[in-house]
Amino acid sequence: MHHGESIEPSSLNGKITDFLSLLQRARSRALLLDYDGTLAPFTCDPAQAYPYPEIRETLRRIQRETDTRLVIVTGRKASDIPKLLNLTGIEVWGCHGVERLGANGSNEIARIDARLLAAIETASQLIACEGFSNLAERKTASIAVHWRGKEHLSENVLRRMRHIWSMIPDRSDLRFAPFDGGIEIRVAKIDKGDAIRAILRDLGQEAAIAYLGDDLTDEDAFGALTRRGLNVLVKERSRPSLADAWIKPPEDLLKFLRAWISACRSSSKTTSKAKS
Description:
Layout: E1 2-3, E2 5-6, H1 14-25, E3 29-33, H2 55-65, E4 69-73, H3 80-85, E5 91-94, E6 99-101, E7 107-109, H4 114-129, E8 136-139, E9 142-146, H5 154-167, E10 174-179, E11 182-187, H6 192-203, E12 208-213, H7 218-225, E13 230-234, E14 240-241, E15 245-247, H8 251-275
Parallel strand pairs: 2-15, 3-4, 3-12, 4-5, 12-13, 13-15
Antiparallel strand pairs: 1-14, 5-6, 6-7, 8-9, 9-11, 10-11
């Protein structure tokens, strides 16, 4: 692991600039984005986690003005994202890659072993017995307990969650996964990296691909894209990461998204000149 190279507030440079140059020449492009903490600030109420100002319109411009495959990769349920972003025709990989909502509205869910679903149901019941139902969120193949806005409870919740984890009879294919503001018990064999690998298979070797994320769960995605694309840590403060670069939300994030649009437009002009 290493610390990502920070973006200077006044300019995009280093590995990001190199990537944008590659983006301009690429035959195909994909922009892969985490949601919470990356496109939207964290909130106490996940249902109110709307994107930073100007993000929505900038993503619309990417959809409208470029040939980018725009994908959200999130720990949330896939169906949450179009509502929060107020965008149609967007591809979403939800629940860390378990769910896939296609840009055309198609909906796919990975097959999960019934034994694992039963183990997660056991965890859910134990969490209810601990009195944490008000903090819990049941998803397709996991259960998350959130303490954002109730940080004073975090140590107690984490301690009790470790106890719950120890009581699940067969944990071999599950993951006890901390994230920013909570803890999740989820299927271990599917993570954000699987979503990235599937997209890489679709696009092939010549595509220019970037992944932007903030959380520990995004390290799975960074790992899958290492040496195949650009990984960007989007966070107020840097931390050890597999990312190639570090930017701060929302100003540097918007700068990056606008630079993406500019690079794709330059590509279109170059292609038009070549044809004429």
